[in-house]
Design brief:
The chain has 327 residues and is of the alpha/beta class. The chain contains six helices and 36 strands. It starts with a strand and ends with a helix.
């Protein structure tokens, strides 16, 4: 964090600096286990107090409950939510150290004459913005982003390299052993303050639009099928797949590698564990997990074979219960 002092960080972000001098210079933000005398670090999980005691960081961001433990080793910034404070600190570092990204269209980008790009938006190298597309104020398209025709991106979005917005959805009708293409006549509508990770693909709708509401955060290599609707401030980790016409509620989270089958609905505040396959709609908020634990292969095969017999075992138990009642 070149050129920043602890006092300046606290003046900008709040919190209480304790046990340290305001003129202490901070060189970078670093994890507890590797932080050195010029580094700012943080501790948000009390389970890692042992790392706190051993850390050589110049200053550690902690919650009020860990204030005494932090002071026992040196300077600390006490904040109600250390993880959020850490996030704000990274933004402050970026503002101070990263080169400004100028608004405008890179010379190598291709923008259709009918597309609307806000003057404050940034269109990076080798991007393509097709006919009738809209890119909102303050939005940044990094290199090699494609925005398909008539697709809409709101304000202050960040779209990372290789993202494709508005490719055709996977729609085909079977006829005599062959496939007849269903033209995808919808588009994609993305709200404000959305971030989309590298090489993620969001398909256009078949008849209606695919919709990503405000504040959604998508990781790398995610597939969002046609006509999917993702509610406000949902977040999805890498390699998630959302099949066509699924509806994801607001504030949902989906762990890495999970799959949501098509035409299902997830209520608000549903949280899906990594590698889970969602095969039915989930109408109540909560944490849902559906995965078969890893095991020695021979034992896994035996357990999998047993699972295949569960239905017949259930029927046998029902028959036994009825026989006992009759007796």
């Amino acid at each position: 964090m070149s050129g920043l002092l602890l006092g300046h960080i606290v003046d900008v972000l709040g919190g209480s600096l304790e046990g340290g001098a305001r003129d202490t210079a901070i060189a970078r933000i670093a994890p507890l286990e590797v932080a050195g005398p010029g580094d700012l670090s943080f501790l948000s999980n009390p389970r890692y107090q042992q790392q706190l005691a051993a850390s050589r960081a110049a200053c550690v961001i902690v919650a009020p409950a860990l204030r005494e433990a932090a002071l026992a080793r040196g300077a600390c910034i006490v904040a109600d939510n250390p993880y959020v404070y850490f996030a704000r600190a990274t933004q402050l570092w970026r503002q101070r150290n990263a080169p400004a990204r100028p608004a405008g269209v890179h010379p190598s980008a291709v923008v259709d004459l009918t597309a609307q790009v806000h003057p404050t938006a940034t269109i990076g190298p080798l991007c393509v913005v097709e006919r009738g597309a809209h890119v909102g104020a303050g939005t940044v398209l990094k290199s090699r982003v494609t925005v398909g025709e008539d697709c809409h991106i709101g304000a202050r979005c960040i779209v990372h390299s290789g993202v494709v917005i508005g490719a055709d959805g996977f729609g085909f009708a079977p006829e005599n052993g062959q496939w007849v293409k269903i033209e995808q006549l919808g588009a994609v509508r993305i709200g404000d303050d959305v971030e989309i990770g590298a090489n993620t693909c969001i398909d256009r709708g078949a008849l209606q639009d695919t919709v990503i509401e405000d504040g959604v955060k998508l990781d790398n290599l995610i597939q969002v099928g046609h006509n999917v609707h993702i509610g406000k401030h949902a977040a999805m980790a890498g390699c998630v797949g959302i099949a066509g016409s699924a509806t994801i509620g607001a504030h949902c989270t989906v762990g890495g590698g999970a799959i949501v089958l098509g035409h299902l609905e997830l209520a608000d505040n549903v949280h899906i564990s990594a590698a889970t396959v969602v095969t039915r709609s989930l109408t109540q908020p909560g944490q849902y997990t559906g995965m078969f634990p890893i095991d020695d292969n021979a034992r896994w095969e035996k357990n999998a074979a047993t699972l295949k017999q569960l239905h017949s075992l259930r029927e046998r138990i029902k028959a036994l219960e009825q026989a006992l009642k009759a007796a």
